[in-house]
Amino acid sequence: MRLSLVVFEMGEQQFGLPIEVVSEIIPLIAVSPVPNMPSDWLGVANVRGHVTPVIDYRVRVGRAKDLPPLSAPLIVIRQGRQQAALLVEQIKQIVTLYVEQLDTAGIIHEGRLLMLVDPKAILGRETPSS
Q: Where in the sequence is the domain holding 79, given as residue range(s)?
């Protein structure tokens, strides 16, 4: 099975996001906070005319919530009509891997565990419950 991923790093851990859901990778842009949102939401941003939730993926994976550096990239993901932007620490590379069997938790790449990100889990949280 062929698997193409955008690989990004959060601290020492690597994550892979299926390339087919990645719309673009952009520099950090202005984000407007929204009250009563989940703790991993930075707010919303205007991404090419679309109001887009911005999720601080650092918080989602248990890293400290602090002000992001201006160099932090946003990975804009889209499935159907749903769109979100993930704030990550660093984009590492785009890779195509050939795997015999896909483990939903992760795969070994370059001798390290590469955690696979499920875009449905991110986009499914687009509208928080009241």
A: 2-123
Residues 52, 39: Cα–Cα separation, whole Å: 16
Query: Please, how many CA atoms are within 13 Å of residue 98, restricted to the half-sphere of its CB?
Result: 0
CA distance 89 to 83: 20
Distance of alpha carbon 87 from alpha carbon 26, whole angstroms? 10
50 assigned to some structural domain: yes
Cα Rg of the chain, angstroms: 15
Question: Beta strand 13-18 with 112-116: parallel, antiparallel or unpaired?
Answer: parallel
Q: How many residues does the chain have?
A: 130
pTM of the model: 0.88
* Residue 99: C-alpha distances to residues 7, 94, 96, 126 (Å): 16, 16, 10, 30
Over the chain (130 residues), what is each successive 10-residue block's mean pLDDT? 92 92 95 91 94 93 79 93 94 90 77 89 58
Backbone angles phi, psi at 71, to 5 degrees: -85, -5
Distance CA 67, CA 49 (A): 25
64 occurs within a structural domain: yes
